[in-house]
Write a structure and sequence with these properties.
single chain; about 450 residues; 5-stranded parallel beta sheet; 20 helices; globular; alpha/beta; 12 strands
């Protein structure tokens, strides 16, 4: 009766097969004037999400039927703006980290801190209200994904983003793996007039040639074996917003030809469709390859290059903006202390010097991953040199003395990659995450450097 007079702050989904835990969570939320919707399994959770009218969802990773990871994957397509928080046991912490990379807003570890639950709900609702506004990145996105750095190189990048974002120009972002190309793409989208529209990402290197046409342009039911229903490709899914073509340099020649036709005509023809459909989308592309070299070798079409590279933004590697390392490191330390409920005062002087001396072949992504793992494993009040050495090669580049810079880099990379692979018992997914690169790039580097499992 008392609660009936109060205004409901928001509708919260709890997808949890442990009824006692679900009831405890519901009681806390209802006590703070949230309306709770319960789902006992993954299928019921997906139905509730599809029904709309939810403001946030708590999803247990281990549920009968569809598990939490599958719910998350489906939710991205059904309700991309709905913040979902995954709940996990300690043994599944790696899966929870993977879930946040798939798009989960946050994750909570059992036993759950109930104050943290309420704080997470407040943050998620605040993020949702800000998310679609055309601002210099919504508050939570800034905290989780923002570009950090005051070096001259980064100041130039910020100015370039402000300059090109309001236009409709196609942008090509270049730079080594881990320099933050996706962050720049997201910043351009959020600063543009399309900020309220979707932001779709396609990893061109991860899609087999046989599926690239269907993935990008869609297909109609019955167009080929296995096409049991109509499928809108990424171009149509991004209509009204921006399409981010990551690793565009890895597209095959046939896929390049089809992409060029779409960019010229602004029409998409789904596989098996009777006629093409006009599409309104802004293209932002990225590559870690030198496309002019690829053109000279006949690997990339020159006409496509000029269509894609209307505006070029080149991101400097971390070793060329080392003055940003203290700020970046402090930002990641604060962020992950919040994520893992740790209290660390900062870095010891020796630890900071270790970070400054390191070459960072995986750039900012590798630094982020290194500090995330160090925060999890740290034993003292501050992050020490010993905490960081485990994540790194243990030897600054300046101590190496090979014949050429290229030999130094390759020798260093080979030694470091072998060390990481051994520490993860040669599990490719985990090793790639530690290195701050994707699995495809790890395979390529192993082949190039002659790394083989013993």
């Amino acid at each position: 009766e008392k609660g009936s007079m109060k205004r409901i702050k928001g509708r919260v989904l709890i997808a949890e097969d442990d009824s006692a835990f679900a009831a405890q969570l519901a009681s806390v939320l209802e006590g703070e004037d949230y309306q709770v919707v319960l789902a006992r399994d993954g299928n019921e959770a997906v139905r509730q999400i599809a029904g709309g009218e939810l403001d946030i969802g708590f999803i247990d990773l281990s549920m009968p039927g569809l598990d939490g990871m599958q719910v998350l994957e489906k939710a991205v397509g059904i309700a991309p703006d709905l913040p979902l928080v995954v709940i996990t046991g300690h043994a599944s912490i790696d899966r929870a980290i993977q879930a946040t990379r798939l798009g989960a807003f946050d994750f909570l570890e059992k036993p759950v801190n109930l104050e943290r639950v309420l704080l997470t709900v407040e943050r998620a609702l605040g993020w949702r209200q800000l998310e679609q506004k055309n601002s210099w990145m919504a508050a939570e996105i800034m905290n989780r994904y923002r570009m950090v750095g005051t070096s001259p190189g980064m100041q130039d990048i910020y100015a370039r983003i402000d300059q090109v974002a309001p236009t409709e120009s196609t942008v090509l972002i270049t730079g080594e793996t881990g320099t933050g190309k996706e962050l720049v793409a997201m910043a351009i989208h959020l600063r543009s007039h399309r900020a309220a529209g979707p932001f779709m990402r396609v990893n061109c290197a991860a899609i087999p040639d046989t599926l690239i046409e269907s993935e990008l342009f869609g297909h109609r039911k019955g167009a080929f074996t296995g096409a049991t229903e109509n499928h809108d490709g990424k171009f149509m899914q991004a209509a009204g917003g921006s399409l981010f073509l990551d690793e565009i340099g890895d597209l095959s020649q046939p896929a390049q030809a089809k992409l060029l036709r779409v960019l010229q005509s602004r029409e998409v023809e789904a596989v098996g469709a009777a006629r093409p459909q006009p599409v309104d989308v802004r293209i932002i592309a990225a590559t870690n390859k030198n496309l002019t070299e690829c053109i000279s070798k006949g690997l990339f079409r020159e006409d496509l290059y000029y269509r894609v590279c209307v505006i070029d933004i080149n991101l400097p590697p971390l070793r060329e903006r080392k003055e940003d390392i203290p700020e970046l490191s402090g930002h990641f330390l604060n962020y992950f202390c919040g994520q893992y409920n740790r209290r660390l005062e900062g870095f010891t002087p020796a630890a900071l010097q270790t970070l400054m001396n390191y070459h960072w072949p995986g750039n900012v992504r590798q630094l982020r991953s290194c500090i995330e793992r160090a925060v999890i494993l740290a034993r003292g009040e501050s992050l020490s040199e010993a905490d960081l050495r485990l994540m790194m090669s243990g030897k600054p580049v300046s101590e190496e003395a090979p014949a050429t810079l290229r030999q130094a880099r390759e020798r260093f990379e080979k030694s470091y990659i072998e060390q990481v692979l051994k520490s993860h018992d040669w599990k490719m997914e985990e090793s790639a995450a530690t290195l701050g690169i994707d699995r495809t790039n790890l395979y390529k580097k192993m082949q190039k450097l002659g790394i083989h499992r013993e």
